[in-house]
Amino acid sequence: MFHFFAVLSRMKNINRWGLMRNTRQENLCEHSFETAVIAHALAVLRNTRFGGSADPGRAAALALFHDSTEIITGDMPTPVKYFSPKIRSAYREVESVARDRLLGFLPEDLRDSYRPLLGAAESPEDRGLLPLVHAADKISAVIKCVEEKRMGNMEFSSAETALRDAVASLRLPEADCFMAEFLPSFSLTLDEQE
């Protein structure tokens, strides 16, 4: 009996933004889905508008699993995770142990297929997609901030500014395009999106 997929299903039990007052709680499963959708879109934008050859399906798959180690580690708040190089290094080690634990829930013959999805990207193609996944992760967080502010929760204002700056600093034309063309719609009501 192997527990990998049952353990993955627990992503819905990991809440994000633990240090922030939320009008609506976001779980890891929701965030991973949204990040996958955005990573797919960024790869499509790269190919369609910027002459790239990214695999949108692979970008989406990498994004779906990008935070899966948090099933074991929990969601460490960003201010804590990045407080110092020493803490960030220690957290990377904890993530590595968590990745190995998750892989241990799979039959031996499936582990090599899932290892890159769990954050051990080894192929040049996967490494080339990681900036898109990273950007999608940040954009998903910006969307959370926009949604919270739309509900009157100004607690997310500073986080939104910092995350917008983080996306811009990536210097990815695909991410800039998404931010300019698609992000503004998240500030609108359903009726306004018609």
UniProtKB/TrEMBL annotation:
It is an enzyme of class 3 (hydrolase). GO terms for cellular component: cytoplasm. GO terms for molecular function: 5'-deoxynucleotidase activity. InterPro entries: YfbR/HDDC2 (IPR039356). Its EC number is 3.1.3.89. Keywords: Hydrolase. Gene3D superfamilies: Hypothetical protein af1432. Pfam families: YfbR-like. PANTHER family: 5'-DEOXYNUCLEOTIDASE HDDC2. This is 5'-deoxynucleotidase YfbR. The lineage of its organism: Bacteria, Bacillati, Bacillota, Clostridia, Eubacteriales.
